[in-house]
Each structure stands twice: as C-alpha cells, then as structure tokens.
Amino acid sequence: MAGSNPTPYYTPTSKPTQVSSLPLKITNLYSLVAITFLCSAFYFTGLWQSTSNRNNSIIGTSNVHTTLPCFPSKNITSTKTTHKLDFTTHRSVNERDNAVKIYPPCDIKYSEYTPCEDPERSLKFNRNRLIYRERHCPEKNELLKCRIPAPYGYKNPFKWPISRDIAWYANVPHKELTVEKAVQNWIRYEGDKFRFPGGGTMFPNGADAYIDDIGKLINLKDGSIRTAIDTGCGVASWGAYLLSRNMIAMSFAPRDSHEAQVQFALERGVPALIGVIASKRLPYPSRAFDMAHCSRCLIPWGEYDGTYLIEVDRVLRPGGFWILSGPPIRWRRYWKGWARTREDLSAEQNKIEQVAKRLCWKKFVEEDDIAIWQKPYNHMKCTSFRNRAKNPPMCPAQDPDKAWYTKIETCLTPLPEVSSDKEVAGGQLEKWPDRLHAIPPRISRGTVDGVTEEVFQKDSQLWKSRVSYYKSVNNQLDQPGRYRNILDMNAFLGGFAANLVNDTVWVMNIVPVEAKVNTLGVVYERGLIGTYQSWCEAMSTYPRTYDLIHADSVFTLYENRCEMEDIMLELDRILRPEGSVIIRDDVDKLIRLKSIADGLNWDSQIVDHEDGPLEREKLLFAVKTYWTTAATQGSKTS
C-alpha cells in the first residue's frame, strides 16, 4: 500500500530445536498462535489506517462543503486567471502519478477547428446533394493532441439577454455576413462589436414581427407548441426570439460559404448545431418537434422524390406544423427579384404541394409570404389513402428513432397505431410547462426498455437533489448570467436540464449512441432539446461553444471504447475560457481525469458524492483557465 509500512507476517528464520517434553511443545504452540494473532491484528490495523488516510488525502473531505470561490472575467491575454482558484486535492500519489502529460497549444490556424466538418477534409467527398457538408471525422492517427486557442482579444460573451443582440467582434472575427446580408438585417459591424438587429432574408422587419405574423395563423401562446427545428437557420434570429415566448428551437446550418453563421448563433447564446440535411437522417428522434421552419433555407424540398420533406415528417410530432417562407411561396409577387422564371417557381411549388399531399399533410394556410402545412395526428385515414398513392411507400419495420449516420430513406415513417381517428398517435402531450414534469407518453406506454413511471419519478427527485448539491459547491450556478450555454454529455431522461429550466440557461441534452437505452425521445417529450452523439468523435459545433459541461458516468460508458484524453481534449475545444466542468464518475477514473485536467491547465478539485464520502462515485469540478493566442497572428502562447 502506498504511504504505509505495515508489520509483515510472522515468518520463522530457523527451524526450531527438537525437544521431547510434551508441556514444552504445548507452550511453544500457544506462543506461536499468540504471536501469529498479534501480528495479524497489527497488520490489519495498519492497513485500515493507511487506506483511511489515503482516501482522505484523495478526496479532501474537509473541503467537501466549501463553496468554490468566484473568479473574475478578466478580458486580458494571459495563461492564468488573475485570481487563481484553489482546487488542489492535496493527495498522496504513486510514483506513476507524478508525471503529468502537458498538452501544448495548437497553432492559431486551428482557432475555429471543427474536426468532423473540416472544410479541407470535406473537399474529398461527393458534392452531390451536399454530402461533402455532412460529418466526416478524422482518423484516430489524425486527432490533434493540443489545446485549441482562443483568438487574441477574446472576451467573455455578453450576458443574456444582451447577448441576443450584441457580440464581441474579437470572439468571431468574420465580417463576411455584414456585407453579404447587409440589406437583410442579419448582422452589423459596429466598432469592436457585432449587432444583430433580428432580421432575416424573409423578415427584414425583424424576427419578432415575423413570429407575430406566424402567431396570427397558428396558436403560439397556449403551450401546445414548445419545441421547434429551424432548417438553414442563418444566425438563428428566429430561434433567438422564440425563447422569450417559452419556445425553444434546435437551429442548424452547414459550415459553408455563409462563414460562421452557427458560430454567431452560439455566441449570441442561442441553441444551434452545425448540420445539413443531405444523405443521412437528422440526429434527432422521431416525433420530436412541434414545429419545423424554413425561411428561404434553399433546401430543394420537392426534389429527390421528396426525400428531405419525408425526413421532416419523421421528426415532426403528430399534429405538428411545417412553416415555409421564401421561394417558391408567393412567387407571383417576387419572381423577378428572385431572378427565376414564373414557370420554374410554379413547378417548384407544385412539387412541394404534391409531396406534402402524399405525406398526408394538410395545407393549413397560406397568407402573404407564409405557407403552413400540418401533419396528421395519426395515420388511420392516411393508410387507406396510401393504398391508392404508393409513393412514397410506408417504411418497413424499423427503429424510427435511430439517427446516427443512418441513411435517409424515401419511405414514410409509420406513426404508432391508434384505436380511433381522434387519437393522437404515440400519446397526447401536456402543454408547456406541465409537459416538463408529466410522465412522457413513451414511458407511460412502456416503449422505453426498462424505464417505468416509477423510474422516471425517482430520476426526477434524484436530479433535484443533485443540482441543489452542485449549487452548494459552485455558487456561480445560482448567479444569473454566469452561464448560458450548457451541455449535458449523458442526459438519460433530461433530469439535469429539467432542474435548470427556470434559470437563464439552455441545455443541449446528449444521449450517447453507445447508451444501453435510447431516451432522447423522452427528452423531447418533456419539452427539452438535444441530439445524438458518440463521444469517440468530435461534436458538430465550434470551439468555445459551452459555458458549462456536465458529464455523468461518461468515462465509465466509454471505457475500452476510446481514449480518455481524446474526450477531455474535445471538452477543452468546445468549452469557453473560464468555462466550468462537472464530471461524475468512479473515483479511480476521476484521479486519472484530474491528471489530464492538470495537463490541460484547468483548475480542478475532486469532491465527495452528495451522499457522503463512503460512495465510490465522486465529482470533479474544474474551470478552464483564460488564455489566448499572442497579438502577432500565427504565433503560439500557452
């Protein structure tokens, strides 16, 4: 045992002298037994003391209930925070723990590196149907083993809701969109800041007014619409302004010629991912969104046998709405400005109308620049219609929630069976905010393996307790504006996010594709958002996306699947300077992770489980220190 020197077992050094006296033999036997007993007692007492001391030194139990000190948001070029956090664990270590591997800074050219959407790598792939814009991750021998630098002059983002309208130029130093979209009110460059007026290509008067127009056509106020998906989101102004109306949108756009559009969205504090609808399913479960939206997103909805609209149908909830503005809607007025012929635009709209009809959608309304279709609540009537219109065919038996590198199919995903044409397929959802704590239909109907109503209720109580404990350890979790963008790397039923819903934050809930049970559909039925992800690969997001990252048993899940250091390097890439990390896992794994965190130049501390020091599961609280590249472009700093 390290740090102890227990009494060795009794071992005779010479053979005893033979004697013929029986009493003497009995006396020697008694002595031998007594000595053996005493030696064993001393040994186990020493072993217990050694183990106890070592555990106390590892965990630092005297500091478990100490609140983590606040740290300043100093916008200076430095390798340390001005007020260094004391996260020292004060533990004894074995010789093999003494050497900490130091991870050097990457070159400045990697400042905006997105490993699985790398523009250079993408050129090797098929340009047909934008396949080259999909995820194409590096091989294991291509993974970077360095820390992605923040650009010189990087500053902590403005607090929400100010960040919705203003961002620092130094954080996303790209002016291309300010020129390209100048007349469309997307973004303006003003001194050392960007300003987001809230406009868009089809809503130059602002997203708020545009959402008001939509609200005149469908009910956006009664809580029946909570989750939305915005395809080709631009800088996500539509999603940004939905938030103030208790709706949350998953916005996505490819990393393309519209430089940094998703990066701007995230800098504003709006949920977004890099993504494209091409040859693979979108990384979301079936029946996830109450509303889907495309505002001049330039997706060819009527082409390829309606493949892309078929995919929207898969992720759209029964009774959900699809909203389309921009070409070809109202083409009779805009065809000249769109530089297209009337015949071309008319044919495009006819194709969309035909695909929607074959999907059994109803044309809900078309007014001014907006057209809205509604998905049926069930497929009871659609089934008889499908007997006449066989294109697209109904999909054969499959998992409609499987959506990680899953090929898009040109078939209609069947809805769960119903007993009457008035019944909502898959179950009726409660309106928001009751939806958050109600039993999700996937659970009440027993379609999530091993997850019962009782499991759901216990999980809800568990995370209420855990989040309360987190806030007692890190008081910044209770400070409005300190955190905005939060990532939960292993969300399960969304309990962590559910207990933060009243704070000024949003949470991206990840259900790892390696998890035993696919629960992302449950997360969406609670009115939360998320995506699938394998943590053996990089996430589809930019560096410096998240203010706080939470990882529950992630490293246990990925044991023998991929390297700890690669997951930690990915966390470092997507975490903002002075961002925080909370990792829950077995103590042995946390000790190894603590060493990696030291090599990443994070301040960190291992603390006890909320149920006390006897639990093997512990928590690692960490803060990424502030550092940027040097003022001279292309140079490195650590």
UniProtKB/TrEMBL annotation:
Any one of the GO BP annotations: methylation
UniProt xrefs under InterPro entries: Put_SAM_MeTrfase, SAM-dependent_MTases_sf
Protein's recorded name: Methyltransferase
Principal localisation: endoplasmic reticulum
Recorded superkingdom: Eukaryota
Species per Swiss-Prot/TrEMBL record: Anisodus tanguticus
One Gene Ontology cellular component annotation held by this UniProt entry: endoplasmic reticulum membrane
Family recorded in the similarity comment: Belongs to the methyltransferase superfamily.
Entry keywords, A to Z: Glycoprotein, Membrane, Methyltransferase, Signal-anchor, Transferase, Transmembrane, Transmembrane helix
Species classification: Eukaryota, Viridiplantae, Streptophyta, Embryophyta, Tracheophyta
Any GO MF annotation of the entry: methyltransferase activity
Subcellular location(s) per record: Endoplasmic reticulum membrane; Membrane
Gene3D superfamilies in the cross-refs: Vaccinia Virus protein VP39
